Automatic annotation (TrEMBL):
The keyword Ribosomal protein does not apply. The lineage of its organism: Eukaryota, Viridiplantae, Streptophyta, Embryophyta, Tracheophyta. It catalyses: Hydrolysis of (1->3)-beta-D-glucosidic linkages in (1->3)-beta-D-glucans. One of its GO terms (molecular function) is glucan endo-1,3-beta-D-glucosidase activity. This is glucan endo-1,3-beta-D-glucosidase. Residues 365-377 have a biased composition (Low complexity). InterPro entries: GH (IPR017853), Glyco_hydro_17 (IPR000490), Glyco_hydro_17_plant (IPR044965). GO terms for biological process: carbohydrate metabolic process. Belongs to the glycosyl hydrolase 17 family. It comes from the Eukaryota. Its EC number is 3.2.1.39. Residues 354-377 are annotated as: Disordered. Keywords: Glycosidase, Hydrolase, Signal. It comes from Capsicum baccatum.
Amino acid sequence: MMEPLLTPIAALLVACLFSSIIMVSSLGINYGQIANNLPLPENVVPLVKSIGATRIKLYDADPHVLKAFANTGVEFIVSLGNEYLANMKDPSKAQSWVKTNVQAYLPATKITCIAVGNEVLTFNDTTLTDNLLPAMQSVHTALVNLKLDKLVTVTTAHSLAILQTSYPPSAGVFRRDLVTCVAQIVDFHCKTGSPFLINAYPYFAYKGNPKQVSLDFVLFQPNSGIVDPESNLRYDNMLFAQIDAVHSALASIGYKNVCVQISETGWPSKGDADEAGATPENARKYNCNLMKLIGQKKGTPMKPNSDLNIYVFALFNENLKPGPSSERNYGLFKPDGSQAYPLGVPAISAVSNNSSSGGSGSGTGTTPSASLPPASSSSGYLAITSDSGRSLCRCKSLLLCLVAFISLALHLQC
């Protein structure tokens, strides 16, 4: 009988090579649960580890998830839904929430941040907007009282639609009607050392104008890029241009050194007939290229020495999300734990146990069920036109590494 081409040792070496393409130490992932067919949280742990994610953002503080990830070293952002902002203005209620949903899980579960509200400012609801900063301050005060403020910070996630202008990146500014509110929130971040979170989706730029927006530019594929006429900085992908537009907007109100994190970004693997670009191949390119970029630990053209802090949206396809088909198909994984498209990592089984009840969390225990998060409601995308050519070039260094690994594997057989 013919011997196999690669021995188990050789095969392992090659598998390690491909795994290293995708696994990055600083990757964050959004763990939404608007579904009724997701695996139990304990079965989710190996899936998270399989992609090298070390940070998770929840849309609530699901006790089942927080318990399942105890002693794993994975960092968590837990969240308070928009419907709880009014209550969180009350210091006693805020402290009670922090005790029950944060302090109770520390230090076994590494909760490092609380996100108060999601995309509040672009709902144009004055009550929500007026409650946002007081709620953030109240939750922070609770952390101080419980001596947890050195371990846990407080923030909120914004839609990119808070920008009035986003192109060129150097011209980024906030909406005039939001400047005062944003400045107060950023001042809070500076005083407490918390990050400024933005949800950014280049997908919407392509979906809105597929004939004008370069697909390669939004998918991190090789392209001729664009040059900012004011800063002379070159951009070869839209996400970096969006991030630097936020940096410019922050600088325009006097804050040049705020820590910006991308709390959501992703690409759907399926959509309706009018949702251009929502395919498994485009989703694979976007997320896999993004993960490789994160692994390089380099910043944007405007902030080259700052590591990227990005949370991919999302861990799972969520079958109960409202809206177009794309909303239910942002997951890296299907509910049974299989990959929605090839991720370059070994497949891991995760049996679906219908653990979710249709909310953003489990809806059980002491954590209130959060509202359905508008995970992809950002409409303020960066509209860029680029006549960049397509390129099918492969990374030579990757091929050389592959050849070296296979040569070593064959040598080990002899």
